[in-house]
Design a protein that fits this description.
This protein is α/β, with parallel strands linked by helices. The chain has two domains: 2-203 and 293-313, Aldolase class I (TIM Barrel), CATH 3.20.20; 207-291, no CATH class. The chain is 34% helix and 18% strand. It is built from twelve helices and 13 strands. It has helices spanning 25-33, 47-60, 79-88, 103-108, 122-131, 153-161, 177-185, 195-198, 207-215, 238-244, 267-275, 299-311; strands at residues 2-4, 7-9, 13-15, 37-41, 67-73, 93-97, 114-119, 136-139, 145-146, 168-171, 190-193, 221-225, 231-235. The strands form three sheets. The chain has an eight-stranded parallel beta sheet. It has a three-stranded antiparallel beta sheet with strand order 9-13-12, covered by helices on one side. A two-stranded antiparallel sheet has the order 1-2.
């Protein structure tokens, strides 16, 4: 049992928060029921939809050995209001990345909600620890979606785990149990996995999207520049190729969902198209090693495969 300032989980696996509407209540609840931290992706959701998803997940969680979290990008225009919904609904954990917020530390202080910032450098890891983070997610450039560094997780992890005292969850490149074992060997308390949980029965995307992962091969993941202003990893598709060629894909309308947007294309609409299986017009975010995924299984099956890795892990005894 891992105890992080009173938050207790039996298996130190965080399911990555994947927007838009990729990781929702069904997936998050399934992960929490297995003893991990299940995460709803709150970015770009209307406030009441996020509130409803949190409540749905609570109803589905019958095993108290895990926890419920929400991931919200700092780059989102509605960041503060989304955070307030999470606090009002008393989620267990808030995870935030795609930028770094200092204000969120005072927002959650005294609420009982745990805060796990996503960082990609030792500097930000130390700042997060000093400001009062309960744990951090250290994410490398081999992760899926928006990235904070060009370096892979394997190259940045140990410097950070050697330098801070709060628990570290390693993200980027964790697809197989062997990858998790490698991550733990670098001093992490646990792992965060996004891509592996896309290819599950409980994930809220189309079968076409899931099969893009299963059918991908090494080298099929390319790095594009998102309209958020950050690089991102995605499966090579006709739409990704257009982005690599820097074709003009200016959207006809804009909901101003981001604080800052290049407006060269709409990352929101392209992700939604990808999740629905639109091969021509969709953007399929994926970790650089998503090609290792060769099956679509249940969340329970993933935990059964990974649990042996953690059974003898001394870091699991870490109490913060």
């Amino acid at each position: 049992m891992l105890n992080i300032n009173g938050l207790k989980i039996t298996t130190p696996i965080i399911q990555g928060g994947m927007a838009i509407r990729c990781s929702m209540s069904k997936l998050a609840a399934a992960v929490a029921n297995e003893g991990g931290i299940g995460v709803i992706a709150g970015t770009a959701l209307p406030l009441e939809e996020l509130r409803e998803e949190i409540r749905k997940a609570r109803e589905l969680i019958i095993n108290k050995s895990g926890a419920l979290g929400v991931n919200i990008m700092f780059a989102a225009s509605d960041f503060v209001n989304l955070i307030n919904v999470c606090i009002e609904e008393k989620v267990d954990v808030i995870i935030c990345g795609a930028g770094f917020s200092r204000d969120i530390f005072s927002m959650v202080k005294g609420t009982g909600v745990k805060l796990f910032p996503i960082v990609s450098s030792l500097k930000l890891a130390k700042i997060a620890e000093k400001l009062g983070a309960d744990a951090i997610v250290v994410e490398g450039g081999n992760a899926g979606g928006h990235l904070g560094t060009d370096l892979d997780s394997w190259d940045i992890m140990q410097e950070i785990t050697n330098s801070i005292k709060i628990p570290v969850f390693g993200a980027g490149g964790v697809i197989t149990p062997e990858d998790a074992k490698r991550m733990l060997s670098l001093g992490t308390t646990g792992v965060q996995m996004g891509s592996r949980f896309v290819a599950t029965h409980e994930c809220n995307v189309s079968d076409e999207f899931k099969n893009m992962y299963v059918n991908s091969k090494e080298g099929d993941i390319v790095r594009i520049m998102s309209s958020v202003g950050l690089p991102a990893n995605a499966i090579r598709t006709p739409y990704a190729e257009k982005l690599l060629r820097e074709e003009k894909l200016t959207p006809k309308s804009c909901s101003s969902c981001l604080k800052h947007c290049s407006r060269k294309f709409c990352v929101n609409n392209s992700l939604v198209a990808g999740h629905s299986g639109d091969y021509e017009n969709g953007l399929f975010f994926a970790g650089k090693d998503a090609w290792k995924i060769n099956d679509i299984v249940s969340v329970h099956e993933i935990f059964e495969r990974f649990k042996p890795v953690f059974e003898k892990n001394e870091n699991l005894k870490h109490s913060a």
